[in-house]
């Protein structure tokens, strides 16, 4: 089935907290923004700060939504991406923190802080 849509979409993007995911999602966001679609890109404040700058013509189309990562026992302070973890045995704790975004995302949508969504793109389901 092919669905044709004329007009712009509002797309929420929630990439996994690894730069091998964040950077390709950002490239996809820029590509979609060039076509006039509006992107809400959800990640942590530290991850947003480390992403490349968005070209000025695309800034009206890409909105970064920064949500602090919940503190999880055993997860190092300021660890907001895989690159921040000193060892692989800490990966499950980052996954658990990622899972805690479920309620925050639900709250954002239900309170209309993110409104008129057409779709949600994510690439990782932690648990």
Describe this entry's structure for a reader.
InterPro entries: UDP-glycosyltransf_plant. With 127 residues, the chain is of the alpha/beta class. It has one domain (10-122): Glycogen Phosphorylase B (Rossmann fold, 3-Layer(aba) Sandwich), CATH 3.40.50.2000. The chain contains 4 helices and 4 strands; from the N terminus they run βαβαβααβ. A 4-stranded parallel β-sheet has the order 3-2-1-4. It starts with 9 loop residues before the first strand and ends in a 5-residue tail after the last strand. The mean pLDDT is 89.
One letter per element, helices H and strands E, the order comes to EHEHEHHE
- Can you summarize the main beta sheet? 4 strands, parallel
The CATH class is: Alpha Beta
The tally of helices reads: 4
Specify the helix fraction band. 25-40%
What general outline do the C-alpha atoms trace?
A: globular
Assembly category: single chain
Q: State the CATH topology.
A: Rossmann fold
Average pLDDT over all residues: 89
Strand order of the largest sheet: 3-2-1-4
- The overall number of domains is 1
CATH superfamily: Glycogen Phosphorylase B
Count of beta strands: 4
Flag low-confidence runs: none
Concise overview:
With about 130 residues, the chain is of the alpha/beta class. About 30% of the residues lie in helices and about 15% in strands.
List the helices and strands and how they pair.
Layout: E1 10-14, H1 19-34, E2 38-43, H2 45-50, E3 62-66, H3 91-99, H4 101-110, E4 119-122
């Amino acid at each position: 089935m092919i669905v044709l849509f004329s007009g712009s979409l509002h797309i929420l993007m929630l990439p996994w907290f690894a730069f091998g995911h964040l950077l390709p999602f950002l490239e996809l966001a820029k590509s979609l923004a060039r076509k006039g679609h509006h992107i809400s890109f959800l990640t942590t404040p530290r991850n947003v700060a480390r992403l490349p700058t968005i070209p000025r013509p695309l800034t009206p189309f890409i909105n970064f939504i920064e949500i602090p990562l919940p503190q999880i026992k055993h997860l190092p302070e300021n660890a907001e991406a895989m690159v921040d973890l000193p060892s692989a045995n800490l990966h499950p704790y980052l996954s658990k923190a990622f899972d805690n975004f479920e309620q925050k995302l639900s709250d954002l949508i239900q309170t209309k802080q993110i409104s008129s969504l057409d779709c949600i793109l994510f690439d990782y389901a932690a648990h």
